[in-house]
């Protein structure tokens, strides 16, 4: 192995290997350069894309009132049930639902079963005679026939219900107030009654009824509408709004700007530190009116930028991007 020929061959191979290695190193460097730059650009684009697109707004000063929203029902507190005073048959003509009746007006006419069997009305020739077996049932007050339970020709027992008459002049609403909210409701208090079709009627709390619902613990009040009332059926569900406090000036934010947890015990908003960072700020909320929530604390400056949309799911100190 110490022969001069082998020593020269070994040196020659070593130089060739160094040359090849250097060439490969140069080629690898040239190939990796553009890929590395592209990878860095992709990373930058991903960081930009990771920023949440948000819109911002400012605290707004509004005049708000804390409102108690309750549910009520239409009612006719003055109603009369017309009943049969004997056993017999209903004679024509029979009233129809919705028919107007006057005080003392005959609504139902009955014929006793004895009169029907013996034809007493034909024997006497005068159905107005007392022994003819014709019985007239009149309405004690003026109103409208709400229900008609028996028709002409029907056989009824003594005391059976024939129909009901509602006194439309005594129309009103019934309001069930939870016992935890009784301090906000009092006799003579004004209220707003919203019908299912969106119409709003002014009303007034008339009087409490001396009974409470044991199962749901509510106190019942009667409400008197103020002004003209459209014809409404009984037991129609309406919304009753009562003011819990006097109007006050307070700072408000849109409902979508205020976030909360699953139990709705903690509330917060996202405030911008700069154009690219939003931080979580716990807040204490108040009444809500027309889609805006009162912010009781902390005291935000009118210049503070609050995230209005795109804030859902953002962590504290989140990277954001303003939407134009």
Automatic annotation (TrEMBL):
GO terms for cellular component: efflux pump complex. Gene3D superfamilies: 2.40.420.20, 2.40.50.100. GO terms for molecular function: efflux transmembrane transporter activity. This is HlyD family secretion protein. It comes from Hymenobacter gelipurpurascens.
């Amino acid at each position: 192995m110490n022969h001069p020929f082998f020593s020269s061959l070994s040196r020659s191979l070593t130089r060739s290997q160094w040359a090849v290695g250097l060439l490969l190193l140069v080629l690898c460097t040239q190939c990796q350069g553009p890929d590395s730059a592209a990878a860095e650009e992709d990373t930058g684009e991903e960081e930009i894309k990771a920023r949440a697109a948000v819109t911002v707004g400012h605290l707004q000063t509004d005049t708000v009132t804390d409102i108690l929203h309750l549910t009520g029902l239409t009612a006719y507190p003055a109603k009369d049930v017309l009943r049969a005073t004997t056993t017999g048959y209903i004679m024509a003509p029979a009233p129809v639902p919705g028919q107007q009746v006057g005080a003392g007006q005959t609504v139902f006419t009955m014929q006793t079963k004895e009169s029907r069997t013996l034809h007493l009305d034909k024997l006497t020739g005068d159905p107005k005679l007392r022994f003819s077996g014709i019985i007239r049932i009149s309405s004690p007050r003026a109103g409208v026939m709400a229900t008609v339970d028996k028709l002409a020709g029907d056989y009824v027992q003594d005391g059976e219900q024939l129909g009901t008459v509602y006194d439309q002049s005594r129309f009103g609403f019934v309001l069930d107030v939870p016992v935890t909210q009784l301090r906000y409701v009092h006799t003579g208090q004004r209220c707003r009654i919203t019908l299912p079709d969106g119409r709003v009627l002014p009303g007034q709390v008339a009087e409490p009824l001396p009974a409470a619902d044991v199962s749901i613990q509510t106190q019942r009040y009667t409400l008197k509408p103020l002004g003209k009332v459209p014809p409404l059926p009984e037991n129609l569900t309406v919304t009753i709004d009562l003011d819990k406090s006097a109007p006050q000036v307070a700072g408000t934010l849109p409902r979508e700007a205020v976030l909360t947890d699953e139990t709705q015990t903690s509330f917060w908003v996202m405030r911008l530190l700069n154009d690219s960072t939003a931080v979580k700020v716990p807040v204490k909320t108040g009444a809500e009116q027309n889609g805006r929530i009162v912010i009781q604390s902390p005291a935000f400056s009118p210049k503070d930028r609050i995230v209005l949309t795109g804030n859902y799911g953002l962590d504290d100190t989140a990277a954001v991007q303003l939407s134009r």
